[in-house]
Design a protein that fits this description.
The complex is a heterodimer of chains A (313) and B (488). Chain A has 313 residues and is mostly helical. Chain A has helices at residues 24-52, 56-62, 74-81, 83-116, 123-135, 140-150, 158-161, 168-181, 184-192, 197-208, 210-226, 229-234, 243-259, 264-272, 277-306. Chain A has 2 domains: 24-75, no CATH class; 83-274, MetI-like fold (Orthogonal Bundle), CATH 1.10.3720. With 488 residues, chain B is α/β, with parallel strands linked by helices. In chain B, the strands form 6 sheets. A 5-stranded mixed β-sheet of chain B has the order 2-1-3-14-6. At the A-B interface, helix 2, helix 4, helix 6, helix 13 and helix 14 of A face helix 1, helix 3, strand 11 and helix 11 of B.
């Protein structure tokens, strides 16, 4: 034992731990900055809510005010008169959003899964196929011709759903997600256990991909909820008008009226159909609130999901 | 265990199938059908505006009649005011099949070949309606020597008016008999400004244009005008004209004195016609308005107007409401025949313009109607963009003298020197776009009085020069000279 190595290691005493963080002052500064930014995001919406509760006369004489001289629920009572149209539109919007999101997610995730599998022979072709539509858009007129002449979908609810049923961006996001989060070995072991391809996808891969699916669902749902352009192009009958397009129509009618001031006599029919300022804001509130309220439920996945598409291999 | 796991998946599949089926039944009720059955042709027609509430009833009456007389049914589709331009331009450029449409961008689309040539079809299949048209309509709608439009015979001439809210005139005992131009409004506006805090003295907003006694080649937003008080053979820039500058200075003065809303240049606040929120507004009126009768009817309150421009039959008025037949239509003859019937059969047309007979109106005398309680603003169509105003019955409050006066006024109104002149923009397309961009920076600011014209106009002219204004004006003058020579 003598002369053996001395095993006692001298431990260095840690005097100071350098935690990677901001010091107090910087922290407060950034908190204020972020707080201001958050406020600037939410402020317009608060303002819209305030305007929707302002009385029409006070709007005409004083304009918009943070604390109006006269409060009123006129805007909402007028909406109640329009309730048939609004409920119908709300129904269409919800229908399109739910079905559309479902179809979008089903198509997107199965497409992405296929091209994420290394043993799929045409994966390269289908990846590029999806990428091309992401980079080059054919423009409005060709897609209009396809929708109306070839598919005969004009004035059907499918014209609101199908144009957005497959999103190439989401495909790429999901493909990366499947590659990174679902190890090849799990798929292999299931195959050894005798699972069919379909079963592997539905019972093994999909449950593992819930955060990714939640993220693309949110993207899709937002897209469908806010879409008015497809309705502008393809929808003719009143009972298929989604809520956002109803708003958009009112806005563009107002623009038209102001551009053609001086024709009041001719346009009086149109003018009469335009709801008042407060009513318009009330409509904005009604059309935004549902999606804003559903946001927190998605958020849990959304934050983790945002990073998944970060690396596109 | 195994069963349990399968259940959600099966459920999902069932849900999907269920909704797909539900979706199939969710079709619009207006299936586009151009086919003909039993010798009856269905015409697809696009109209601008909002559907009247009793649309189905009105159209059923029309279809019953047209089916019996000319074997045609009409599938009338409304597209909102604001969406019409966007939607029609897609429909036109995709070559989609339709038969009749309210024309938008008439000249451009006609030059493109989107519309069927009606030069021969019109007099042949709709002779009665053709003969009733004022010749200014034919002249004003002729593009490259051909007629592509079926114009609605209506306000063939128009005048810019100041319309006064009569309740305030009576209240303050104001005298408006001397109002002839923008400069005469000052004292009147002042009274309202001082006494009525809730009233906007001059209803001016984005889109308001100061209109001098001129006619415009490319619309009043572009600086190409002919001065009707001056040399009518020269194309000028209206913003470089003393008469116009004077008006703009006055507007700027009104703005500074608070007679115009502070945010007028950007605001699209409406001052509803049927409210007391405004005192003076600028309106356009023509012979079929019967003075202030129409305006007062739609405003549901008395309005008095004073004209500030001469009655002129202009291209803008001739193209006010055109119906066009698509060049892709398979039923061109039938389409013209239908328009002909609509514009010559008083029963048919009045059933649309006044609504249901017996419910909304009843006929008194030969060509007058008495409005009943069933007449509401949203259960009939507008006269100006539906059909021949000459065969529309008049309200019983209008005297025979007024009708005689109307016809005299139409006969006496002069034609604008540029009526029928269409400028071919092919060689100066880029410059036109540049000029239009420059104009959009100044139009609202100058016209609403927000900008000081003595500072802004030199600036504007400088920018116009850089945008290639002279080149366009010279080209236009050249074409205009040729047009004038061909007319003589």
């Amino acid at each position: 034992m003598k002369g053996g190595p001395n095993y006692t290691v001298k431990k260095k005493k840690i005097e100071h731990v350098q935690v990677r963080t901001f010091n107090k002052k910087t922290n407060i500064f950034f908190n204020i900055m972020v707080g201001l930014f958050a406020f600037s995001c939410i402020f317009p919406f608060l303002f819209v809510i305030i305007i929707s509760f302002t009385s029409e006369t006070s709007l005409l004489t004083n304009g918009y005010a943070l604390w109006p001289s006269e409060w009123s629920i006129q805007g909402y009572t007028y909406l109640a008169d329009l309730k048939d149209q609004i409920i119908q539109s709300l129904f269409i919007t919800v229908f399109v959003t739910v079905i559309g999101t479902f179809i979008n997610v089903a198509f997107t995730s199965s497409y992405a899964y296929a091209i994420s599998r290394p043993n799929f022979r045409y994966k390269r072709f289908f990846t590029i196929f999806a990428l091309i539509t992401m980079l080059f858009s054919p423009g409005m007129v060709p897609s209009y011709i396809v929708m109306t002449n070839m598919l005969q979908l004009k004035d059907t609810v499918w014209a609101l759903i199908l144009p957005m049923a497959l999103s190439p961006f989401n495909i790429i996001v999901m493909r990366t997600f499947f590659r990174r989060q679902v190890p090849e070995s799990i798929i292999e072991s299931s195959r050894i256990d005798g699972a069919s391809e379909m079963r592997i996808f539905t019972q093994i891969v999909l449950p593992l991909a819930v955060p990714g699916i939640a993220t693309i669902s949110l993207f899709a749902a937002l897209g469908y909820w806010n879409d008015w352009f497809n309705a502008l192009l393809y929808i003719q009958s009143d009972n298929l008008v989604p809520l956002q397009y109803l708003l958009m129509k009112i806005q563009s009618n107002i623009d038209f009226m102001t551009q053609n001031a001086g024709l009041s006599g001719n346009l009086s029919g149109g003018l009469a159909a335009i709801p008042k300022e407060a009513t318009r804001m009330a409509m904005v509130v009604i059309s935004t609130l549902p999606i804003a309220c559903s946001y927190p439920f998605f958020q849990r996945y959304f934050v983790s999901g945002l990073t998944i598409g970060g690396v596109k291999e | 265990m195994k069963m349990k796991k399968k259940v959600p998946f099966l459920l999902v599949i069932m849900l999907l199938i269920g909704t797909v089926l539900a979706g199939c039944s969710l079709k619009g009720n207006s299936t586009v059908d151009n086919s003909s059955k039993d010798g009856v042709t269905t015409l697809l027609m696009y109209q601008i505006g909002d559907k009247p509430e009793n649309f189905d009833v009105l159209m059923e009456n029309v279809n019953k009649k047209t089916e019996k007389e000319i074997g045609v049914r009409v599938n009338l589709q409304y597209i909102g005011w604001g969406d019409y331009e966007k939607k029609m331009s897609v429909i036109v450029s995709s070559g989609e099949n339709y038969d009749i449409a309210y024309a938008n961008n008439y000249v451009t689309n006609a030059q493109k070949g989107a519309y069927a040539d009606l030069t021969e079809l019109f007099p042949k299949y709709a002779k009665e309606a053709y003969d009733m048209l004022d010749s200014a309509y034919i002249e004003g709608n002729t593009v490259n020597g051909k007629l592509y439009a079926f114009p609605v015979n209506g306000n063939v001439y128009a005048q810019t008016m100041f319309s006064f809210n009569k309740q305030y005139i009576d209240k303050y005992n104001l005298d408006i008999s001397n109002v002839k131009a923008y400069k005469d409004l000052g004292p009147l506006l002042k009274v309202i400004k001082e006494n009525e805090t809730d009233v906007m003295p001059f209803s001016v907003g984005q889109g308001f244009r100061v209109l001098p006694n001129m006619d415009f080649v490319l619309g009043n937003g572009m600086p190409f005008a002919v001065d009707l008080n001056g040399d009518t053979s020269k194309i000028i820039n209206q913003y470089d004209n003393e008469q116009m500058k004077e008006n703009l200075r006055i507007m700027h003065q009104y703005y500074n004195e608070g007679y115009i809303a502070k945010d007028a240049a950007t605001s699209n606040t409406e001052y509803p016609l049927n409210s007391g929120t405004w005192f003076i507004r600028q309106e356009t009126q023509g012979p079929y308005d019967y003075g202030d009768t129409l305006l007062s009817t739609v405003a549901e309150q008395p309005i008095v107007s004073k004209a500030i421009t001469d009655p002129i039959k202009s291209t803008a008025q001739a193209q006010m409401a055109n119906f066009v037949v698509s060049s892709n239509s398979k039923n061109k003859e039938k389409a013209v025949e239908f328009l002909g019937l609509l514009n010559s059969d008083p029963d048919l047309l009045n059933g649309l313009i006044y609504g249901e007979e017996g419910n909304a109106w009843e006929k008194v005398g030969e060509n007058k109607v008495k409005l009943l309680d069933g007449y509401k603003s949203n259960n009939h169509m507008a006269a100006w963009n539906t059909g021949n105003n000459k065969i529309v019955y008049v309200q019983d409050s209008i005297t025979d003298d007024q009708i005689k006066q109307r016809d005299e006024n139409i006969a006496n109104a002069t034609s604008s020197p540029i009526l029928g002149f269409t400028f071919n923009t092919d060689s100066v397309k880029t410059e036109i776009t540049n000029i239009s961009n420059v104009m959009s920076q100044y139009l609202d600011g100058l016209n609403t009085g927000t900008l000081d014209p003595d500072k802004a106009i030199p600036e504007l002219n400088e920018k116009l020069k850089a945008a290639g204004y002279e080149k366009v004006r010279e080209e236009m003058q050249k074409q205009f000279d040729a047009f004038q020579a061909s007319k003589n």
